[in-house]
């Protein structure tokens, strides 16, 4: 009952990388959101959910809302994985846009992710191309495209896990 479980939802591998790093650093179990049953959740005293950010929403966070009764007796936290550079303001905005009032006291962390336009599927690719185009037209001060400039970016870094590791260690 003392083990921790990291549940993740990851479309292009960003949140998955962080879940795997957490596993190798702490020995916690990890599982994709769709594999996690109520019976499995009951085995753990600590559950962390991690999901990618899409148009400001943390993918799969409904997992925490749906299982709130089961999670209420456990140490629970959330991490989001997005392309935007990390800042206090970003964390505040993501929390405001995604957390219910019941989740307000839940620890929340942010890790910078990655994207590869070549691996993206139809609509996602179209959206990113549109963002790149809008940035190119409107924001000449940034190096053309801002966060989503170029076809491939990878900002994943173990340093983002420091606060998550502290949480897992109970600090
Ligand atoms: C259609 C689309 C929308 C996105 N919207 C955001 C966003 O609003 N904010 C952000 O920081 N990153 C955004 N991203 C970048 C993803 O959050 C980033 O690629 C992250 O690593 C995805 O995590 P995952 O691969 O685990 O799903 C978006 C990516 C796509 C394809």
Structure description:
This protein has 171 residues and is α/β, with parallel strands linked by helices. The protein folds into 2 domains: 4-113 and 155-168, 3-Layer(aba) Sandwich (Rossmann fold), CATH 3.40.50; 115-153, no CATH class. It has 7 helices and 8 strands. It has helices spanning 14-26, 38-42, 62-66, 68-71, 88-98, 122-138, 162-168; strands at 4-9, 29-32, 46-54, 57-58, 75-82, 108-112, 114-116, 152-154. Strands 1, 2, 3, 4, 5 and 6 form a 6-stranded mixed sheet that branches. A two-stranded antiparallel sheet has the order 7-8. Helix 1 (14-26) links the parallel strand 1 (4-9) and strand 2. The radius of gyration is 17 Å and the shape is globular. The two termini are 19 Å apart. The relative contact order is 0.17. The model is unreliable at 141-145 (pLDDT under 50).
**What is the element string, with H for helices and E for strands?**
EHEHEEHHEHEEHEH
Content of β-strand = 15-25%
Distance between the termini: 19 Å
Number of strands: 8
Instruction: Describe the main β-sheet briefly.
Output: 6 strands, mixed
How would the global form be characterised? globular
- Looking at CATH, which topology of the largest domain would you report? Rossmann fold
The named CATH superfamily of the largest domain: Flavodoxin domain
Secondary structure: helix percent: 25-40%
| Alpha plus pi helix count | 7
Radius of gyration: 17 Å
Distinct small molecules: flavin mononucleotide
Quickly count the domains.
2
Which structural class is indicated by helix and strand composition? alpha/beta
- The average pLDDT is 91
């Amino acid at each position: 009952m003392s083990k921790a479980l990291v549940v993740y939802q990851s479309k292009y591998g960003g949140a998955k990388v962080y879940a795997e790093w957490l596993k190798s650093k702490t020995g916690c179990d990890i599982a994709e959101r769709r594999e996690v049953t109520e019976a499995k959740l009951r085995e753990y005293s600590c559950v962390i959910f991690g999901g990618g950010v899409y148009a400001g929403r943390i993918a799969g966070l409904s997992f925490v809302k749906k299982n709130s009764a089961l999670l209420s007796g456990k140490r629970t936290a959330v991490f989001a994985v997005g392309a935007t550079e990390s800042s206090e303001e970003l964390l505040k905005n993501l929390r405001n846009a995604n957390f219910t009032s019941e989740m307000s006291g839940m620890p929340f962390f942010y890790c910078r992710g990655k994207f590869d336009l070549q691996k993206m599927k139809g609509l996602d690719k179209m959206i990113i191309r549109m963002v790149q185009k809008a940035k190119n037209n409107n924001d000449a001060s940034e190096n053309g495209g801002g966060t989503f400039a170029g076809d491939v970016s990878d900002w994943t870094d173990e340093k983002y896990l420091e606060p998550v590791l502290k949480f897992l260690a109970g600090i």
